[in-house]
Amino acid sequence: MNIEYRRTVQGSYMVLEGKRAALGFEKQMLKRNDIPQLLTFHSLELNGKTQFWYDIGGMRSFRDIILCEGITADLLYELFSSVKEAYGKLAKYLIEDEHILLHPDALLYEKREDTYRAMLCFCPLEHDDVKEQLAQLMRFVISEVDHSKAEVTALCYELYAITEREEFSFYDLMERLGRECKDSDLSEDFSYDESDFMDTPDYDKPVAAEACRYDRLRYEVPEEPEERVSEKKSLIKKLTDGFKARIIELLPDFLKGRRKLLPEKKPFRDIEFDEVPQPEEETMLLSEDRTGCRGRLIYESGGRGGCDLQVDKNPFSIGSRSGGNDAILSSEAVSRYHAKIFRRDGSFYVQDLNSKNGTFVNGEILPYHKAKKLKRMDVISFADVVYRIV
Predict the structure, then answer these.
(1) pTM of the predicted model, to two decimals?
(2) What HEC string does the chain produce?
């Protein structure tokens, strides 16, 4: 199965191509219901293969969020919690877990009021099972975590170790993350509300009860005296603190001994991106001095006024949000995290971050994830804000 991103005048799309798997009742469920937790899509047959086009306008992939914001326990908990919530709401539609794609480039999020909301990808194409996908997800995480931060690195290796077990589930990862994030309430996280199924069209309560077997979130635990619960929590905290301290102590030797088992930092082989063209000549856009990469973007038009930008970081992020960007553009058309400029192999490129209104180089719109090499006097448009490179 191949994954690629395309941009048209209608919007931004993720395109999956492969061999279609057999569908049963799910086909009817998708026809009869508008499922808000799933990416909207349409399919077509081309050269004996099936293509699925998913509308991903304004969303960001798991990979992009991790690379841009850095790996922390709270961020992982937020991203995984959103997936857990989406899974819980999907249960009433009887969508098989095996048909949900959890690849770091196919797991998409939209941000609402500073909270990430997962949009799951229903993929009726042949692909790896859920356990292998989760293992791949955690391999990507440990390949990108900052190994100088011992605590979060130890946590990531613990999560990866969970995926190496013979029997595990996504909710085992959530349970471990929940213990790490002190603000989380595990009793709430793993609770289950049957009222979620009461408004399901065309299904009565017995059917809803049958649907519960697809939901791994349901745990029926008898109530215990408060003192007993407090003793258990104290014991669990003591054990986990001791285990975490031991992991941090052994981490340097562990890394030295297991370094060859870590995945290399390279794109997944099942994803095809356009090759970055080799530079024909040296670009004069940016130069590297003692302060790092330097360059200028001259403001030409658009937005509510603007000023020239000094590109002095690698990567250099651009958007309308005041936090998390190196350049803030005052325009309602510019997305909060719109694009970034970065250096690679001696040349400099611009990459769109799946912005709502697009990034253009000399009038050509950039698909999500496609890096465009920059040359002197190129015109870059971040939505309606236009700059020229000098």
Answers:
(1) 0.63
(2) CEEEEEECCCCEEEEEEECECCCCHHHHHHHHCCCCCECCEEEEEECCEEEEEEECCCCEEHHHHHHHHCCCHHHHHHHHHHHHHHHHHHHHHCCCHHHEECCCCCCEEEEECCEEEEEEEECCECCCCHHHHHHHHHHHHHHHCCCCCHHHHHHHHHHHHHHCCCCCCHHHHHHHHHHHCCCCCHHHHCCCCHHHHCCCCCCCHHHHHHHHHHCCCCCCCCCCCHHHHHHHHHHHHHHHHHHHHHHHHHHHHHHHHHHHHCCCCCCCCCECCCCCCCCCCCCCCEEEECCEEEEEEEEEECCCCCCCEEECCCCEEEECCCCCCCEECCCCCCCCCCEEEEEECCEEEEEECCCCCCEEECCEECCCCCEEECCCCCEEEECCEEEEEC
Joined tokens for residue 314? 């690698």
Q: For residues 375 and 283, is the Cβ–Cβ distance under 8 A?
A: yes
CA distance 305 to 310: 17
Q: Which two tokens stand for residue 154?
A: 């130890």
By DSSP bridging, strand 316-319 and strand 12-18 are unpaired
Q: 337, 334, 311: which is closest to 325 by C-alpha?
A: 337
Contact between 373 and 286 (Cβ < 8 Å): no
What confidence category does residue 329 fall into, taking pLDDT thresholds of 50, 70 and 90? very high
Picking from 331, 328, 327, 322, the residue whose alpha carbon sits closest to that of residue 303 is 331
Strand-pair partners of 350: 341, 372
Per-residue pLDDT reduced to its tens digit, 160-196: 999 988 888 888 899 899 888 855 444 344 444 444 4
* Residue whose entry in the numeric block shows the structure tokens 């909710």: 171
Does residue 285 register a pLDDT over 90? no
